[in-house]
Amino acid sequence: MAIATINPTTGEAVKTFEELSETELRQKIGLAFDRWQTYRTTSFEERAGRMHATADLFEKEADLSAELMTTEMGKTVASARAEALKCVHGMRYYADHAAEFLADEPLADPSQVGAVRALGRYQPLGPVLAVMPWNFPMWQVMRFAAPALMAGNVALLKHASNVPQCALYLQDVFRRGGFPEGCFQTLLISSRRVESILRDPRVVAATLTGSEPAGRSVAAICGDEIKHTVMELGGSDPFIVMPSADLDRCAATAVEARVQNNGQSCIAAKRFIVHADVFDAFTDRFVSRMRELTVGDPFEESTDVGPVATEQGRADIEEIVEDAVSAGATVLCGGRRPDGPGWFYPPTVITDITRDMRIYLEEVFGPVASLYRVADIDQALEIANATTFGLGSNAWTDDEVEQERFISDLDAGQVFINGKTTSYPQLPFGGTKRSGYGRELAAHGIREFCNLKTVWVG
Fold first, then answer.
1. Which of 192, 175, 224 has the alpha carbon at shortest distance from 25?
2. Structure confidence at residue 191 (pLDDT)
């Protein structure tokens, strides 16, 4: 795939970029390794000062970074602006809390191990490669970069090939925020060259957010090299509605949860599993709201849903929908691409889904909702857990017994009760099953790329 900005609203190429030469790539890796030797010795106060300065720049330039995101991958400008400000929040959070999260952990009674002092100490690992996707081109990078840099690591970013301007902006803003050259570098390269970076002994670990095949490849290479990895590989999140739910609030949130980021979010609700007692009432509200959404130019503030990011992405959506319809599924709204330029696909709701349809198990990365009728909580959990994914999950119920059942039995990295799954710097983020392993955000995220060293003093 060429490294290029192709506007998904029009389908037109805006700007193309040359890949780094092999010499340039090795120089950048060498710079990262050399920089780490000195950067790792800096204090938390120094790092925090630079991180706050970068956050201030990011906040001041939120409209600029929002324009880049909307141009390159089509998210609405309102959501792009919100993403930029979320990055600011994440940077400031880790600037303020890194020292606390990575403080020494002393053994209360070191005499238990025959020592006068015994503790665990977190220390940075070194240069870490981040392989990142296009759907949240700033935030998904920042939720790795902010904790990694605050821990004393340095970062190498291999971003998706369709968001090169976002990737270069990130490199530039960290530089202008005061981070020394080599602390954060963008690598404009194709995916085929990732393996050589992972096998370079100067690169000590990797994190990837993306597809299951990409995760499998990176994890296999790092396993062969005995290098630490964190994987976030997407999901097909359930959104369960029980009889006690506030249906008006639930349906409004359901629409937002499905079409956020034009439906291209790993933690977007994708499968709506509704108790039979409220199925018709919820469906009426949900479908009506989906029909009312405005699809169009993502730069217009009134637009609810912009284009899908890539032409292939829209083709993938169409194939899954057509497979379901041909096997007997019912389309309640949407389901057919509009005429005209750009890679638009309408908000779509499908029901009468059976196990032999691809949509039953596969993630649909676009504004398509699957609707299931269930008889009870057991059937709801059975369908919710039926996929190979386990990233996020939503359940709507005011019954405390049901709430505890969902918290206990939903096989996912995250369970949100009466609310939409989202990511917060304060909470750990990650999945189970084929949604990946490891955690980002919170204290867990900053510790992923640290060596927890045992210290014993006799």
1. 192
2. 97
